[in-house]
Amino acid sequence: MADRINPLKRSFGDMITPTPNPHVGSAPDVPNTSAGENPASQLPVRFLTPRSYQFDVYEVAKRRNTIAVLDTGAGKTMIAVMLIRHIGQSIKSSGHRKLIVFLAPTVHLANQQCEVIKDQTGFEVEVYYGAKGVDEWNLTQWQKEIDERDVLVMTPQILLDALRKAFLNMELIALMIIDECHRATGNHPYSKIMKIYSIKNRAEMEEYVPSAKETCKFYDKPRFNASDLKARIGASWSKFDTAIMDLQGSLDTGYKDMEDRAKELRKRLSSDHSKIVSCLVDLGLKCAYEAVEVCLQKSPKSYEECEMYREISLQRKYFLEEVASMIRNSLPLGDDYVLDPALDYLKAVDSGYMSPKLYELLQLFLSFGKATEVLCLIFVERIITAKVIQRFVKKISVLEHFAVSYLTGTNTSVDALAPKLQREVLESFRSGKVNLLFATDVVEEGIHVPNCSCVIRFDLPKTVRSYVQSRGRARQHNSVFVTMLERGNEKQRDQLFDVIRSDWSMRDTASNRDPEMWTPKACLLDELEIYIVDRTGASVTADSKLPPSAIFHTLAGPVCRNQQLAKQLACLEACKKLHQMGALDEHLQPVSDEPSGKDLMLKSKEASAGAGTTKRKELHGSVRIRALSGSWGDKLDGVTFHAYKFDFSCNVPSHIYSSFVLLIEAKLHEDVGNIELELYLVGKKVNASISSCGELHLDSEQVINAKCFQELFFNGLFGRLFTGSKAARKFLLSEDTTLWNQSYMYLLLPLETSCTSSADSWSINWTGICDSASAVAFMKNISVFACEGDRIDQSAHTSGSSVQEPNDSLMINFANGSANINDVNEMVVLAIHTGRIYSIVEAVSDMSGESPFDGNSDDAPAKYSTFAEYYTKKYGIVLKHPRQPMLRLKQNHNPHNLLVDFNDEGMLSCAKKRSSIVGKQRQYAHLPPEVLIRINIPVSVLKAMYLLPSIMHRLESLMLASQLRQDIGCSVANFHISSSLILEAISTRRCCENFSLERLELLGDSVLKYTVGCHFFLKHPGRHEGQLSSLRSYEVCNSTLRKHGTDCRIQEYIRDGPFDPRRWVAPGQKSIRPVPCNCGINTLEVPLDDSKFQTVDPNIKVGITCDMGHRWMGSKTVSDSVEALIGAYYVAGGLVAALHVMNWIGIEVELDPSCVSQAIASASLRTYIPNDDEVKSLESKLGYAFTEKFMLLEAITHPSMQEQGVNYCYQRLEYLGDSVLDLLITRHLYENHKNLDPGELTDLRSASVNNESFAQACVKHNLHIHLRHCSTLLLSQITEYLKSSDGSIEATSLTEALGDLVESIAGAVLVDTGLNYEEVWRIFEPLLSPIVTPEKLELAPYRELIEFCGSLGYFTKEECVSKGEMVHATLTLQLDDVLLVGEGFDQKKKHAKGKAASHLLKQLEKRGYSRSGAKKRKHGTDCVSASPPESLEKGDVNVITKVKIQKTEENDMLALPDGAPSILSSSKRETPVIESINMKKGGPRITLFELCKKVQWPMPTFKTSEHKSRSPMEVDDIGGKRTAFNTFTTKIKLNIPWFGIIECDGEARADKKSAYDSAALAMLNVLQAKSQLIITNK
Predict the structure, then answer these.
(1) Does residue 822 share a domain with residue 680?
(2) 1330 cis-preceded (ω within 30 degrees of 0)
(3) For position 550, what pLDDT does the model report?
(4) How far apart are CA 101 and CA 125, in angstroms?
(5) Where are the beta strands (DSSP E) in 805-936?
(6) Which of 393, 389, 415, 416 is nearest to 403 (CA)?
(7) pTM here?
(8) Where are the beta strands (DSSP E) in 1156-1267?
(9) Which residue range(s) make up the domain with 560?
(10) Fewer beta carbons below 10 Å: N end or C end of the chain?
């Protein structure tokens, strides 16, 4: 008969199709659970059809509390799921909020059952265990889970804690399922839950859930007599244990930390002895030797410990080496004898190489044959047994086809496996990658491995549970369960029989009892001391643990009959006292000022992309500038404005710019309306002076003309005066739609050129303004011009019909009049057919309307023979004076950002850009006078108008800053903060200004850290340093600052994008570059709590504002601006002003003098035993005499003194001193390096504020001799540091205590002086001097290498390998023609990489590469641009073009350190392979960049040339064809080491970046053609 496949052995993920049941029938015929209700119909489609015995249990469980006793694999989870679905549906239909709780004893099981329930029910299910941080949750977080979840799957301790703290209660739980309920004994959480709150169709189950076939494997007693070796090992252990005891006795009794370490090492030595002897007896000599090797590998790292610890550690090492020698000498045939493929196993057993028990195990493995599908689980009792046997089996050649591993628990043992490694091993076993798995009882329960075919109990099970559960791991059909027994060992036999008998007894009782006959019995619980909070019901029992951070030191418990109970009752009394003192809240949680769970989301898994992080992006709105709003647009009786005059002075005297006046309804603050700016043009600089000129009244006619002037010129120069398509164009200013908005209203009007710079003597150029209004009226009156073909349905207009033809040949006919030919130079004109504004350069006598038309394409046939024909056919304009000379006109251009000094950048790219602009031939237009309207405006007005966008952008920014200053308010006496300083605080680096918030942010961070630190120090005198740090960390973290900032709407003020003059519009101007709003919000403000306005999508671009004022912004930007504002107010008004703005933001900080006095008074009451000489010595070194001497005593007391009964230490003062020194040093650097780049300022602070620099100051001034401690480890560390204080070793943990001492003394001085931090600086500035300067700043070698190589376009590769206690780091750097290799060794990976980088930097210096450029942040002659025109597009990748550097003549030499790998020739190097080329915009460049990085080729260089045409050309592009007047072609050059230089040209493209892409694509194709690259999917 064919073997029957067991359907219940499948995982729930495989249960796709219901399986027919011959005993039950199809699902519709399953007996109903109630009238007309089919249980199967409640199940989802994927659910396996239940068996009848499962329905029986399910029916009983629906009616009452039930214990389901079923074999492993019998489908208990299915019954649970059925019950969950049934109860869950009832809960939903009832409308009452109830929960279903599923308890699983281990995290593995909890995760497994959660997935099953979630997949099979469709309910909201979540899993909870300690590693997820649930232990720290409060009521708010639990309430959120209760509201959102239907089923809570958790480990029992989580439920127990939640019930005790009254976060959950039993009345809320409708159904509780306890998996593996047999554990509910003793002190297990299951038992505590039960204490606190008060199958019959066996044949069918056997058929569908067949048990594994049970058998016994007998082995002989050991033949090899190891008693002598065992005795010698014991003697060795006794010897070295005595040695350790002697060393321990020589310790100073005051150093308890060393005593504890010595005890720990003695325990390790005893454990090693036990492990080795166990393996020797049970497994044989070879495995005992392996056990020694395992113990040696697990030796503690002692290189960071004191000399005494290292000496004791050596005793353990000597013991293991001696035992290894003993065992090796007992192996007459050598320790590799068992590895021989022709091994005589019986001989190996006789000689003691392996035990008979291990021999029989190997025979079982050999019986599996060569089958690699075998999954065998071997249970052992000890971790060392699992590790040793798997090492042994791996070395047996005849078993090499089996993959072998081991799996143990995550206890505190040194042999335990990490949880991640556990999961990986278990998954490998499930998937068949591992065949033989040696395991302890960690996998006995609940682990689902459906294909496990064999389970071997190498060591006997000690309990029924262990026996049943381990047998149940054999899940495959026809699986076997093997128990190994020693022949003739009656003790083992009786032990196994007792286990089997208990199993059958339990099974028989559960199977034969009548489920309908049950009698409830009172549960007799042991009396347990308990304390209950009346208000919430939270409870704590005698076996609860005392919460951390207790606020009292001693408490005497009641007298008890045993030590354990006495400890428990003492803890209970402590909890009562803590609650009564207010240290525990109503839920018996520690009282804390830390935020609620809702605010602690940053601690979750999403913290890396949570609020306040760089990765998260948020949509924010913009605030309207109140000063720019006005309601004067429709007033008929005139308007009174505040006037602000703009005067311009150019450093080139021949360049004249007309003055302008800004008319605005609001009065600007003094530091906004009276400023000076420098505007940077190509080759020249213009100084702009803005001054207030009082008030000015305009009548209604003047307002109309002024608006008309503004509409004409701003649209004519920077926009378009015609709208619509070519077939239906309309004059913009003749449309009914208004171009003015009340929220953005001001006038910019030209002044008479005769006006002086005095604010009292000026007048508006009303002549030019009125003439501009006449030009607009003229444009409105003329007809729409006819176009060629059928693109317009209106008749043509003869422009000259209204103009009388002059008789004088020197007169020029314009569309609206005539002028002398000698007066036309620099005249401003308006083209009636295009709406463009020009200035006349000259009249061209040899060109007229009858001249050949020069606008035809070179390739296309001529469409127009003359200019006259062109205007007639194109625009329907008949030239009445075609013979008069044409006019050469200077064309208008886009406005530029004139606020950035590109002439002083020192950037390679900008230099190229300037040179190209200077040498660029100016393009002129040639038009007949009859199509031009002359406007009586001087050309200096036109030139000045190109300055206005930049000026108004700066003015609007200052208005924004002034508005924020007004919102903040500050009534501090003699305090004023400038708008420019606030503007700096709200401007990010992305604005591309010569200032940004980063410097102020750095200072504000220190101010915030100091003030919040002082606040918590004074407010919580009973809290230790860890609690204070936790409170401060939350209050100053980016997430909290971001919340405070958004609550104050600071995000609406932030400037986070570069000024784009092309998008700037004046009132009355229509934008020609709109950015429509796609977010669906019609207001400036964006809802902060809407998740659709939060993203981590890297494709979302920040800094681009839509027309509604919305823009995506990095979440961290808000918190950065908050810190910068604090820094700005501190700079302007000191600590008082900073505290004001902090309180306005919502950071409630108060430095109450009474709290300071209380802290000093508290110190005066503490016990102090004076040592006058020591105190005077220390005070003389500091130059300060303490008022309260105990403050100094506390500052020099190390925490180790608490072991001697001292109940104070320096940690609280160190916490305070750290923040005050950070502030003082940061302020010093900020004030003394005003022009320093923010990044380098940060480096200076990092180099100055750290334990290493403080430790050096401590040693330099002999402060360390005053440190009071009782730690041998610390004494050893200080001694070693003093020996290496010359800088010969890198900073390690040795410096921590010395640095802490300096900080704690600073904190003591601060408190003793009443928070006078200026006095702290007076004392500590000479102690810390010299403070590092930019010239002496040394970057870490690894960072310097990375920055240096990045500046040159080279790539490095790193490889780190652990070799014992050392890490070997190898860094390779590929130059154009040589591969450099640097190596480093150290105990720590970071230091090893630093040493390797140092070697590479030295090699670079030998080859003529200067390292100075890598240390500079400011762009200079040694640096290159961060984003030159040839580089990749920002946002894709940052690539730096290589700078030409003088090299030595040693380029052909290859300097490699000893032992470094040899360089492969190009023929031996593997050809790189890429899957495909990214063909999106920027994609080819990214592909080429990633290729160069992968194979360490130097980055390619790009050189672009431009071709201009007067007629449009059709150009290829990635997205298709494009029409353009200019095309760009890029040449690319790539140097491939050991191959040569490859150059190629890209195709012509319409823009530079597309040209780069084309060149990169061409290079990739050439690389493939030259066999230097393989593209698998081209």
Answers:
(1) yes
(2) yes
(3) 45
(4) 10
(5) 811-814, 817-820, 828-831, 837-848, 885-890, 924-927, 932-935
(6) 393
(7) 0.72
(8) none
(9) 535-580
(10) N
